[in-house]
């Protein structure tokens, strides 16, 4: 059986590997000149490595752990020196007030009633999908600062959107899919525990290299997918590739930019119009030393105000310089994006000074990569359904359309939005294809 996979991110590469193991002849068509999708490592002249996209792996992410081992790579723990800091109502403190834990616990309790494979079946699904996280927080959090902080941490930190842009149901789905807030927000023991030596782009390159020679064709954006009773044809600028099935392993927002003949069913096409990508800016400030450690701080900060919601020390073992990575989400990221590079730099550094001290004002380098401006990603960390969309469009996420099957992290039921979810989704789509009656 011949199968075309669209996209050589982790999902497409995992799908291709599983299809090859199942005996299929596979061609992966990748738009960019590189594999990996939402991962990229930039090396500065002195060797300092910066993970511009995904970087962390959670200890419970079994498929990622297996791939790391299979491809001869190793992980290292995220830097953990000193105490975290929280900027709350204009002042720094070591932990957020108890009201934050209580509010987040309420979210976890509600998430327990959501099946991540079918969130629309939750008893209160319609009510939760009409309500935004921001609306829920405004009536549930005990005070406005708690509402703002939890909104920034959960809607921003997990989905890179504003609390008013996302439904409570989408948030509950995401919390459940990633094992709850403790797992998703945690450093040691949670989703931010480990990093990959060499960066995740290296793993993607090794996954691609392990496929039969010639399987991955880069610089080949798929513009159209045509199917009939006999097969399916993927059209690129250079040629047309016939197969018995296609796995589209890109986010729904990008899948909707491919032309389909016959046209996609109404509900599936409407899904692609209702799952925008998040809006995150990830910025790396490089310093001669990790100066924040001198005062006993870890560089891990969260903030209820300002353009940056989170920072983390992101130095790599053996690197001569220290890296502090900052994240801005939703509206704050859009506001930064609109500024000139000089004004953006000034705003970011001023915010870093508030969070980690005056020495933050003068980094050697400040490196940013805007995934929203990247033609083949258009935002991050992932796509999320808009309020009110789960009931009618959620069931279309994984439903094949004839010979076209859907992968990509957005279609995962475990660790949706993460590398692990991407791999699981690719392997699920491959299993579907191999089980097709024609297989
Ligand atoms: C800044 C940032 C930080 C993140 N942090 C983490 C983290 O720490 N841990 C974690 O687990 N996850 C993290 N993520 C999320 C993670 O990167 C994604 O979940 C994962 O990479 C998605 O993989 P994918 O294969 O589903 O999609 P993608 O990686 O987007 O792959 C899709 C591929 O398809 C290609 N493509 C698109 N359209 C076409 C077309 N028409 N024809 C051919 N090819 C096409 C793209 O070029 C791309 O290579 C982060 C993401 C970003 C951007």
From TrEMBL:
Its cofactor is FAD. GO terms for molecular function: oxidoreductase activity. Residues 10-434 form the Amine oxidase domain. Substrate binds at residue 327. FAD binds at residues 11, 30-31, 222, 410. Keywords: Oxidoreductase. Coiled coil: none annotated. It comes from the Bacteria. InterPro entries: Amino_oxidase, FAD/NAD-bd_sf, Flavin_amine_oxidase, Flavin_MAO. Belongs to the flavin monoamine oxidase family. PANTHER family: AMINE OXIDASE (PTHR43563), AMINE OXIDASE [FLAVIN-CONTAINING] B (PTHR43563:SF1). This is Amine oxidase. It comes from Micromonospora wenchangensis.
């Amino acid at each position: 059986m011949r199968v075309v996979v669209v996209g050589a991110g982790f999902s497409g590469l995992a799908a291709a590997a599983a299809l090859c193991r199942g005996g299929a002849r596979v061609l992966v068509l990748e738009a960019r000149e590189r594999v990996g999708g939402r991962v990229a490592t930039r090396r500065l002249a002195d060797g300092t490595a910066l993970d511009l996209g995904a970087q962390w792996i959670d200890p419970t992410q079994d498929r990622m752990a297996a791939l790391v081992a299979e491809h001869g790579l190793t992980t290292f723990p995220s830097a953990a020196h000193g105490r975290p800091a929280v900027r709350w109502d204009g002042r720094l403190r070591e932990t957020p007030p108890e009201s934050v834990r209580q509010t987040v616990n309420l979210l976890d309790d509600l998430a327990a009633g959501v099946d991540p494979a079918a969130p629309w079946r939750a008893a209160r699904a319609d009510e939760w999908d009409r309500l935004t996280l921001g609306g829920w927080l405004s009536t549930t959090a005990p005070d406005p600062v708690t509402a703002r902080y939890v909104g920034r941490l959960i809607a921003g930190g997990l989905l890179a959107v504003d609390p008013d842009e996302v439904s409570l149901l989408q948030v509950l789905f995401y919390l459940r899919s990633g094992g709850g807030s403790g797992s998703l927000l945690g450093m040691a023991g949670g989703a931010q525990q480990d990093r990959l030596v060499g960066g995740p782009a290296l793993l993607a390159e090794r996954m691609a290299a392990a496929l039969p020679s010639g399987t991955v064709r880069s610089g080949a954006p798929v513009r159209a997918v045509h199917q009939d009773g006999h097969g399916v044809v993927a059209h690129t600028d250079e040629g047309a590739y016939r197969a018995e099935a296609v796995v589209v392993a890109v986010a729904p927002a990008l899948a909707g930019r491919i032309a389909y003949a016959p046209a996609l069913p109404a509900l599936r096409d409407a899904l692609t119009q209702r799952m925008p990508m998040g809006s995150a800016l990830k910025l790396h400030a490089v310093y001669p030393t990790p100066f924040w450690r001198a005062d006993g701080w870890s560089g891990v900060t969260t903030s209820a105000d300002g353009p940056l919601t989170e920072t983390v020390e992101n130095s790599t073992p053996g690197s001569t310089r220290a890296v502090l990575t900052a994240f801005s989400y939703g509206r704050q990221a859009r506001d930064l994006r609109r500024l000139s590079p000089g004004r953006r730099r000034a705003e970011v550094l001023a915010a870093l000074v508030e969070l980690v001290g005056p020495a933050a004002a003068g980094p050697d380098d400040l490196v940013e990569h805007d995934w929203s401006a990247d033609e083949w990603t258009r935002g991050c960390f992932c796509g999320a359904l808009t309020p009110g969309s789960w009931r009618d469009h959620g069931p279309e996420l994984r439903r094949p359309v004839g010979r076209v099957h859907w992968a990509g992290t957005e279609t995962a039921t475990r660790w949706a939005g993460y590398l692990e979810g991407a791999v699981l989704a690719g392997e699920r789509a491959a299993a579907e294809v191999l089980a097709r009656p024609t297989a």
